[in-house]
Each structure stands twice: as C-alpha cells, then as structure tokens.
Design a protein that fits this description.
Elements: H1 2-28, E1 35-37, E2 49-52, E3 58-61, E4 70-74, E5 81-85, E6 100-109, E7 112-120, E8 129-135, E9 143-150, H2 151-154, E10 163-167, E11 170-175, E12 181-185, E13 200-203, E14 208-215, E15 218-225, E16 237-243, E17 264-267, E18 273-277, E19 283-284, E20 290-298, E21 301-315, E22 318-320, E23 329-331
Antiparallel strand pairs: 1-23, 2-3, 3-4, 4-5, 6-7, 7-8, 8-9, 10-11, 11-12, 12-13, 14-15, 15-16, 16-17, 18-20, 19-20, 20-21, 21-22
C-alpha cells in the first residue's frame, strides 16, 4: 500500500513537471497569425506601385506580365485580391506600336486617380516613352490621355520608369533608365508638360526605377542598379541616396554624389531571392511603421518576378531593411 502511494505521488509530480514544460514550450511558439511570408503575392508582378485610396484600401499596380496592367486590392498589405486591369485590349495605350506597358506609377491628383506608365518594346530605347491615364476609381477603368513624350522627342535615351511628385505646390515627373535620371515640371493637372519647362539631370547612369520619399527634411532617392530580367542571373539591387533639396545633389553617407553613381545599398540578394529591385512607394501602417514593396526572382521558383514586402527601418536618418535583404518570415503590418 505504501509502495502504491509513493508511486502515485511520483506520477503526480512527474505529470506536473510535464505540464509545466509543455506550458513553457507553448509560450515560446510564434504567433503564426501575426506573421507573413515572402513572396507576398507569388506571381510575377514586376515594378510595383501602391496607393492608399479614398475607400481606405490599398491598391497595387504592376508591369503587365498580366496583360493590360494588373490591379490588386488589400486592407492590410498582406492579403491581396485581384480586381482587374487598368486597361482592356480595346482601351490600352497605342502610341508605341507593339509596345508593352511597364512600370506604372499611381497617384491621386485633383480628385482623379492618375496613372503614369511607360510604353516600350524591349531594346527600343529611342522610341519608348511615357504616357498618362486617369480614372474616377482606383480599380478603373482608366482612360488613356496618350503620351507625354518619347525618348526621341525629349532627347533622353530610354525614357521609362517615371515617378510623379508634388513639391512646394508644383508637380514634377522624374524618369530614366541607365542613361541618367532626369526631371521636368508638369502642368497643373499633371496631364502634360508645363509649357516652357526644361529637363534637368539629377543622378547618373547606374540607375533606373527612381522613387523619392520625403522624411524629416530629407528627400530620399530610391533606385535600382544592375540587371532586372535575367532570371537567376539577375543582379538587380535596391539603393538609396538623399538630399535636402528635391533637385539634389543626392549623396551617399560619405557625401559622394549619385550624379557620379554613388549610393547606399538597401536590398540585395540572399539564398531565397535574387534580382531585388524597382521598389514601390513607402506606405505606413496604423503604428506608423514604414513598408516597401519590390520585385524579386524566387530561387525556388524562378519564373517571373514575384512581389515581396519588407519593413523599412531608420537609423541616423538613413533607411535600411533588416539584414539588407528580403525577409522569409516577418511580423505583419499593424491594422
């Protein structure tokens, strides 16, 4: 009887220890509901652009690996729904015969959703150009207003990869792809060049896919270097420089100018992704944390350029991504 009682006591103590161990293990388990994984959309969506619309949802647009410029919608930056295309086969721009629609840039100007786009055939660096379309709704349909200019008209080779920005009440378009980064002033409605405006160069020949972000008195010029479109051999890398003036000079941390192709690297390849570049606008979650989208080639499935997202952090008024490369799993934005 005594032996049985001792055994029961030991069994009870052993069970308690196991219960305590289990509780500790359970406490250490990650909150899977609070995590996301890259790619955020596992299909080819190169050159993303994003906007928070009047309906409080985010809308994302990309180069037309899905024909006629795909549009996705999300309330939380993680769960995305395909809602259609900006154009149809009938309404798509036609100023460049046989050209593709590349690198859209979405904006909200004077109560309209304004979509700037590049149109080119691969290698057509003097016949490509930049156009503009508008819609009353972020999901479209968009009405094309035609080209703003062609490379051979504005005398800038490879005139693609445009970015719109407003500053001190004026509207500007930045653009360029490995032939120098330029800007020019636009009309009040953003649908044409301002009469008499002159182009000016602000960065060197290493860059394309420029995006400028204003924070704490600095203008940050994000751009891409390297090759975008060679599958697993792609060398695309996201870089950044900054200036205290929209028109430069933009410099790296040592003060060396981007006009001479100096910059800081912010996203490079890792074991899971290569060709990390052409980032979107920076958007904020409800906590005020900054997030950026960009495309990359997945090493495990290298067909196309998938959509990645990462949090942008700041140190000494310079942006960085944790690890300087794509995350595999990270905490979701807060909504």
């Amino acid at each position: 009887m005594i032996i049985i009682l001792k055994f029961a006591i030991l069994l009870l103590l052993f069970s308690g220890c196991k219960t305590q161990e289990t509780a500790i293990v359970e406490q250490k388990k990650p909150d899977l509901d609070n995590l996301y994984r890259n790619p955020i959309i596992n299909r080819s969506l190169p050159d993303p652009t994003i906007i928070k619309a009047e309906d409080d949802n985010f809308y994302l647009y990309a180069t037309e690996d899905t024909r006629n410029t795909p549009i996705y919608k999300s309330a939380n930056l993680v769960d995305w729904q395909f809602v259609g295309t900006a154009f149809t086969n009938e309404s798509r721009p036609r100023f460049e015969p046989g050209g593709g629609l590349w690198a859209p840039d979405i904006n909200y100007i004077n109560g309209k959703y304004v979509l700037y786009y590049s149109m080119s055939v691969w290698g057509g660096e003097w016949t490509c150009g930049i156009g503009v379309a508008t819609s009353d709704k972020p999901e479209g349909p968009f009405t094309d207003h035609g080209k703003l200019f062609r490379s051979n008209e504005i005398d800038v080779q490879n005139s693609i990869d445009q970015f719109y920005i407003e500053d001190n009440g004026k509207k500007y378009l930045f653009w360029g792809s490995f032939r120098g980064i330029y800007y020019i002033e636009l009309s009040d409605d953003g649908l044409s060049l301002k009469p008499g405006s002159k182009k000016q160069q602000v960065a060197g020949t290493a860059y394309e896919g420029v995006y400028i972000h204003l924070r704490n008195g600095y203008y940050y010029m994000f751009a891409s270097i390297g090759s975008c479109c060679e599958g697993l051999n792609s060398t695309y890398t996201t870089v950044v420089g900054r200036s205290d003036n929209l028109f430069g000079p933009y410099v790296d941390k040592q003060g060396n100018p981007m006009m001479d192709n100096n910059h800081e690297i912010i996203i490079h390849k890792n074991s899971g992704f290569v060709g990390t570049g052409h980032n979107s606008e920076i958007v904020q979650d409800k906590n005020g944390d900054d997030w950026i989208f960009y495309h990359a080639v997945s090493v495990s499935n290298p067909k196309g350029r998938v959509l990645n997202m990462d949090r942008v952090r700041w140190s000494g008024d310079w942006p960085y991504i944790e690890g300087d490369s794509p995350s595999f799993e990270a905490e979701k934005p807060k909504f």
